[in-house]
Amino acid sequence: MAIAVALSKLAGLGTSPISSIPNVMSILTPLTIGQMTIIFMFVLIGLELVFLRREFSPWALLQLIPSIIFGGLIDLFTDWLRWLPLNNYGAQLIATFISIFILAWGVYFEVNSRTILMAGEGLATAVAIATQKAFPRAKVWCDASMVVVAIIIALVGLHGLVGVREGTILSALITGRLVNWYTDMNPKLTHWLHIKA
């Protein structure tokens, strides 16, 4: 998933909702998108604690491990992919779509392996439990909230929709559908992942 975030960052048409705030903050501050992602994941885990209170499990702190690795890999892939010629809108759009397909593949494995969730999914789970709503609805609410916050930060700090663009909307609309499609198209792999989990 880190390579998907890096590719969407370099394409410049906006990242996925979960990466929209770190992306805008990386433009606004000297920190990289990977460093901002790590900080943001820590904030999300803190929000899980706020929503769950006494139901918060110390095991949820294990989300810190993949969060740190994820942030580091985003910066690594961003450096590696800088050679890509993304200097026109067509190339940027293609790179954005490729990043969405890769991201959906990563989410498919994350969700179906039933191992440690990333903090974004962890927060959505916490919201679902606290509000007694279905996970998909909580996930949409969390993603939409992140995009709104990213837009506000961009408008206030950068005086425009910088870092949140059509790629963010495309990712929000397509990623979930692709995850479902991957699940339907790979029943044997999905079953195997569930067994291994």
UniProtKB/TrEMBL annotation:
<feature type="transmembrane region" description="Helical">
    <location>
        <begin position="89"/>
        <end position="109"/>
    </location>
</feature>
<feature type="transmembrane region" description="Helical">
    <location>
        <begin position="59"/>
        <end position="77"/>
    </location>
</feature>
<feature type="transmembrane region" description="Helical">
    <location>
        <begin position="30"/>
        <end position="52"/>
    </location>
</feature>
<protein>
    <submittedName>
        <fullName>Putative membrane protein [Lactobacillus brevis ATCC 367]</fullName>
    </submittedName>
</protein>
<keyword id="KW-0472">Membrane</keyword>
<dbReference type="InterPro" id="IPR038750">
    <property type="entry name" value="YczE/YyaS-like"/>
</dbReference>
<dbReference type="Pfam" id="PF19700">
    <property type="entry name" value="DUF6198"/>
</dbReference>
<feature type="transmembrane region" description="Helical">
    <location>
        <begin position="140"/>
        <end position="162"/>
    </location>
</feature>
<keyword id="KW-1133">Transmembrane helix</keyword>
<keyword id="KW-0812">Transmembrane</keyword>
